[in-house]
Every structure is written in C-alpha cells, then in structure tokens.
Amino acid sequence: MSTSPQNLDAPQNPDVPASADASETAKPDTSPALIIITGLSGSGKGTVLRSLEDMGYYAVDNLPVDLLTTFTSLILDSPSIERAAIVVDIRGERSLSKLPEVFLQIRDQVQTALVFLDCSTDTIIRRYSETRRPHPLGEYSNLEESIEAERQRLLPIQEIADVAIDTSRFNVHELRDYVHSRFGSGAEQTPLRISLTSFGFRHGVPETADLVFDVRFLPNPNYVPEFRHLTGLDPGVANYVRSFPQTVEFINRISDLLAYLIPHYIREGKSYLTVSFGCTGGHHRSVMITEEVAARLREKSFTVKTHHRDTQKPV
Asked: How far is it, in rounded angstroms, from Cα 109 to Cα 76?
C-alpha cells in the first residue's frame, strides 16, 4: 500500500491521485486534437482534465457518450476550438458501453487519443475514505465491490486505450507533470496569471485575493490638501509616498517575497494569483504600491496586470 496521497479538489468524483506508474500501449507522434479521458473513479481523471485545460485544451467533464460524435463535429467546424479534452466515465453508465464503437468512428474524423486511468483498489479505497464521497456505483454493498464492478465494466474500454496510466503511486504533481510531458511541448502551458489589486479597507477586502497586504502603516497623502482628490497614479502622490524610507523598504521586501513565491505557485499548478494591497480608502498608498510592485515583477519577466478597485469611489 502506497503512502498517503496529497488531497485534491474533485467536485464530481474523488479523483485524487496519490502517485503513479505510467505505461503506454501506443504513443502518438503529435498532440491529438481530441483527448478522451476515462478510467476508474478516484484514479485522477479530474487532475488530468485540469492539466490539459491549463495547456490550452477546451475541457468538458462528464460528457455523455451519445454526444461525443456531435461534439467532435463542433470541434471540426469551430475556429475557436483547436483542441479538446473530454472526461467520459461511469457516471454515464447507460451509454458507456458504446464508447469503443464511437471512439473508432471519431478517430476516422479527427486525431484522437483515448487515455485510460487505472489505480489499485487499496489506493482508491483510501482516497474515498479521505474525501468521504460516495462511489458512482453505490448500489453495491461495499466500496470494494463497487470498484471491482466498475473495473469489469471498463475493461473493454481499457483494452483499446492509446495511453494507459496507473496512478497508484503518482502524487498530484507527478501526474500533472506526466500529462504535460506526454501531451505538450511546454509552449502550450498557460503561465500563472498574476493580478495586483489596490483596494480600500473601508470598502471591504477583495473576495478573490490570495494574498493581502495592509499598507496603512505608510503616511497618508489624504491629509495633504493638494493630494486629497488625486490617486496614487499621480506622479506627485507617488513621489510623496515613495519619499519615506519605510515605503522603499516595503516595496523591496514584498517584491522579493513575491519573486520567491511565484515559481513555487507555478510548481503547485496554480493558474491564478491575486495579490491585494489595501489602504484606508483605496485611493493613494495602495494604488502607488500596486504599481511599484508590478513594475518590479515585470523587471523579473513576470506577466502582471494591475487593477485599482476603489479609485472611483468617494474619498
């Protein structure tokens, strides 16, 4: 029995890969236009789908087999969908038996790969015990019987899979790395989207913030009459805030901290990072700090967007 897996967010099934060995029955020369993902519940299908989505694939979870042909036609006709990844699994049990036949039909129309995720029964049982989610085949008396029943029903699909991955000893990062190395050249990977936001505590902390820094310790330009109705985007206001040594030190320290953290967030597979700087009203100090830190990060070749939430609100 492998070591305890890292927990994973799986809204449909507990697709929480713990770690994995990968074996391929066939390896296409180029990335396919359509990837069909299937396999045992709890084997990591959600992780694979999200990884492909990060690589630019249009992602669809739990598509009924009966709609696969129609969806393939949409891919061929739509200029906005170049590549797609679809999860088809036991949740569509009534039509799942048609998948081998439908897959062979689709493969004649578009370059397609069928990816099958397998996993040891012990590992799946442990993952279900950690997530406490019911197995889709919950009509059986216990979880082990449900897993075995699903394994038998999926056997005809497993036999025709282009890529078979045993996720029993993969952790989430290893599985994601394998998907990226198997289906991408690296250029397709979506970079971490970094957003720096200024706000005023008077109007509440942004709900989407991952990191929040309070800059109310800096001298407030609001008490300087000529600055009161301006914002931190004004050069005079920015120079005033920058004139204090604690401002410069804060910008240096926060910029270095973020430059250290960002590569680790990328390694963890994070797609978005929102860093919020707050002052009292969101007009002066937080705006200036947001712009200064963004400039420092751009100097380090990070792609950063800025947003000033409260500059249009009353002082």
From this structure: 9
- For the entire predicted model, the pTM comes to 0.56
For 74: left if phi > 0, alpha if psi spans -120 to 50, otherwise beta; the answer is alpha
Closest CA to 8 of 290, 214, 268: 268
Q: Which fold has domain 21-183?
A: Rossmann fold (3.40.50)
Range picked from 145-159, 189-203, 241-255 for highest mean pLDDT: 241-255
> Can you spell out the DSSP letters for 103-144?
HHHHHTTS-EEEEEEE--HHHHHHHHHHHTPPPTTTTSSSHH
Q: Please tell me which residue, 150 or 24, carries the higher pLDDT value.
A: 150
Higher pLDDT, 282 or 28: 282
Residues 6+ apart with CB under 8 A from 311: 198, 231, 233, 282, 283, 287
Q: Which residues pair with 306 in a beta bridge?
A: 196
Query: CA-to-CA distance for 254 and 269, rounded, in angstroms?
Result: 22
Mean per-residue pLDDT for 202-209?
92
Rounded distance, CA 102 to CA 105, Å? 5
CA 150 – CA 68 distance, rounded (Å): 21
Domain boundaries, the chain: 21-183, 193-308
Structure tokens at 262: 């960002």
Which residue is it, tokens 């008490």? 223
Residues with Cβ < 8 Å from 117, sequence gap 6 or more?
37, 38, 39, 40, 43, 44, 45, 48, 165, 167
